[in-house]
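Sample log: Acetoin utilization protein AcuC.
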Amino acid sequence: MREATGAGRDPAVGGRRPGGDALADLPARLPVRVVWSPELLGYDFGHGHPMTSERLELTIRLAEDLGLLDHPDLDLVGAGPASDELLATVHEPAYVAAVHAAAEHGTRDPVRGLGTDDDPVFADMHEAAARVVQGTVEAALAVWQGRAAHAVNVTGGLHHAMPGAASGFCVYNDAGVAIRRLLAEGVQRVAYVDVDAHHGDGVQTVFWDDPRVLTVSIHETGHMLFPGTGHARETGGEGAPGGAVNVALPSGTADAGWLRAFDAVVPAALRAFEPEVLVTQHGCDAHPEDPLANLRVSVDAQRLAAQWLHELAHELAGGRWVALGGGGYAVLDVVPRVWAHLIGIATHRPVDPALPVPERWRSMVRDRYGRPGAASMSDGPAPRFTPWSSGYDPSDDVDRAIRATRTAVFPWLGLDPEHD
């Protein structure tokens, strides 16, 4: 990895940024698309379920109160439901029919993941999930066709949905359908990077044998966490060796290890692949307050990863970047802040981490939930890490996980696993 200088230097993270100086000479800005309308709140499994749509409403309200959504170079766009034909580019027609039956008649189909504890049936399930897909597909097309510089859909990132089954709170795989549509439009190489605490198994499955798609996932080890996959040895199918990159981190990994893993794997893999479009999933359940995972990654480190991915999109893909939401179940204190930061970065109006959370938002949260939520857009000190180039420590669990990934997949990408 090259050393960053000038605008690319960040002393808070060891003087390096994976995106280098890619933003130094931005072209005249196209508008940025943010996918949002109240109808998207329909994707909600009901009271008591972790995947509450309140996460989304609170995020958008915070983005509004931070002044991120009221600009002439931002397009705030809703979405209608995707057609069955579009869904069938990834999902089996029999599964789409089963989702229709679940939505219209309450029909459970546990074999297809419908009516389980993770994915209970709810009215309008099909329409709600299909609307998320259409939002991501239209966002991806706007970016590819030069109608938007970047696009953000925090309602998307439903990365566990399989071609024939719902899984892990995900009914339809919006990222998979959007990438498949980009390929149909003539895109030759799409990279998908997933920083959710849970492995991006559904997207990996869809493109396991497709050499035009690189999937990269940094997550808590599947030995400890759903869905139990994403091991370093999973490197792609016979048709696409090296097409899957998985960093399975030990439980308890915090900022320094998480950022070190990102630094050691993601930029090199993306640079080797040279994507034309970058699609990223920003599930924020790696935070220590999240109830469904066991990582310890701060709001600030997740913000930094989004910043790096933004820079890499400009460096490698002409700025063509589609950023999605995903998991994240600390509804008040984490999700709105992480995704507001993501929106700020994508709209080229990054939020200062030292900024107080707007009192208007905190008052709304206090009135609704009985407590005000986080006071600052930061969790504290700026995150720091030691770059991988400093050397490998065989006694460190994180370093062993990083080395396992680099050893397994870097040769397939034409990279030396022992050197940057």
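Observation: Residues 1-16, 24-28 have pLDDT under 50 and may be disordered.
Observation: The chain has eleven helices and eight strands.
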